[in-house]
Design goal:
Elements: H1 3-13, H2 16-24, H3 37-47, H4 51-59, H5 63-72, H6 80-89, H7 93-102, H8 110-117, H9 123-139, H10 145-158, H11 164-178, H12 182-196, H13 201-214, H14 217-223
InterPro entries: ARM-type_fold, DNA_alkylation
Organism: Candidatus Nealsonbacteria bacterium CG23_combo_of_CG06-09_8_20_14_all_39_17
Protein name: DNA alkylation repair protein
């Protein structure tokens, strides 16, 4: 399938009301069409994996085309340089999170990029580091506990970043790591208690929210 025909399909699915709804949820972007995720997933299945088309869609700058690009990209041939180029284009939390969820976690440099990107200054580049931590905690069953423990000092350091899309990603990473297994649960709670001691409203919010979920009956019962 050619990029032109894909874009025609996306425009056919466009919905201005959805754009308004996306904006209310903090989703932003210069070229949003309002295409729903079920429609994007269905179109992704229809297209299949296509590396060339994926890059062409990304370069359009269209919000939904970039999410679709992450769905149809081929992990086996997607390079580290492409990862670094794509995150520089992130301009919305959902593009960031969807690309991490659909593509980045499957790539060999994923753990290294969590560390590297989490020290970036730009909001969505930094978010990508923590979003990727969260996704890896859920999706990659082969990673050992020790790798996630490497992320804990990074989470502590970033816990007073007041920017909304960073603080929520830091919180997300801590909670997902803490839900992975009983050992990491205990250590994540200890990390949250360290964060709680910081003189920062943002840090206290991250810590309290994580502690509430990680010590809750639902999580504790499942981990036992």
């Amino acid at each position: 399938m050619e990029a032109k025909s894909v874009l025609l399909k996306l425009k056919k699915f466009s919905n201005p009301k959805n754009v308004a709804g996306m904006t209310r949820f903090g989703i932003q972007g210069k070229k949003m069409l309002g295409v729903s995720m079920p429609e994007l997933r269905e179109l992704g299945k229809e297209i299949g994996k296509d590396s060339k088309l994926s890059q062409e869609l990304w370069e359009t700058g269209i919000h939904e085309a970039r999410i679709l690009a992450g769905i149809i990209a081929e992990p086996k041939i997607f390079t580290e340089k492409q990862m670094d180029r794509w995150i520089k284009d992130f301009d919305s939390w959902d593009v960031c999170d969807r690309v991490c969820l659909n593509l980045f976690w499957q790539l060999p440099p994923a753990c290294e990029k969590c560390v590297e990107w989490s020290s970036r200054e730009r909001e969505f580049e930094k978010r990508a580091g923590f979003a990727l931590m969260a996704v890896l905690a859920v999706k990659d069953k082969k990673i050992k506990n020790e790798q996630f423990e490497i992320f804990f000092p990074i989470i502590i350091k970033a816990s007073d970043d007041e920017r909304n899309f960073v603080r929520k990603a830091v919180n997300w990473a801590l909670r997902q790591i803490g839900k992975r297994n009983a050992v990491l649960n205990k250590k994540a709670i200890e990390v949250a208690k360290k964060i709680l001691k910081k003189e920062s409203k943002t840090a206290k919010w991250i810590a309290n929210d994580a502690i509430r979920e990680l010590t809750g009956n639902a999580i504790q019962t499942r981990l036992k």
